[in-house]
Amino acid sequence: MKIRTLLVDDEPHAIEVIENHLQRFQQFEVAGKCNDAIQAFQLLQQKPVDLMFLDIKMPGMTGTDFLKNLKNPPKVIFTTAYSEYAIDAFELNVVDYLLKPISFERFFRAIDKIYQLNEQKAGLGLVYETPVSDKESFLYLKVERKTIKVNIKDILWIESLRDYVKVVVQDNVYITKQKISLLEEMLPDRDFIRIHRSFIVAIARISSFYSGSIEINKHELPIGRNYKQDVQKRLKADGFGF
Fold first, then answer.
1. Are 66 and 40 in contact (CB under 8 A)?
2. Does residue 242 fall inside a structural domain?
3. How confident is the model at residue 184 (pLDDT cuts 50, 70, 90)?
4. What is the 8-class DSSP label of residue 172?
5. DSSP 8-state assignment for residue 73
6. Are 221 and 157 in contact (CB under 8 A)?
7. CA distance 115 to 191
């Protein structure tokens, strides 16, 4: 299966370098090339994209601001001539941070990270017992030496713990080495919502809400400042009054 890739950079030569590097990997397919964030946003609405190579300093909108405002971004590798954005990259949970000029050796290491993430996702992936209902789907979680089957309908919330996630169900808690962004991709959008950089919650499990938090099973979970508007809009659409 091809990895559909978007290249975003205002320098044609920079795009050419990445494209030449990518040609040495058969699994990757260039889905588009854009000169700025607005073009990239429009293309993302039209085509499925698995991976985006994103420049940071571009006219109109920086790559970091663009990524912050994407609701469901693909995997991202930053490509830039500036090292001072590394902390922003870490906070935005990007796959890698490539400094220009990008050597093939350094590019290879970034691609290897993509392969590793895809392997993790395949090992965790959503499996449907029947094609009739998403509520009958489940996750396989690797917990210590065991593989645990967790029904999606039983999940209350998921919490990020750096390189691990905590999956909370009604009568148990599972901790597995995984990124919360991968789990977010697998969960059905209509049933779950990201309320914070560190929290995804099951909408049906929300018992009450406040201006800066929601409550599930008497546990109060924070709503992140950058997520507040989307959360309020979503909960209002689902019947919660504000």
1. yes
2. no
3. confident
4. E
5. -
6. yes
7. 29
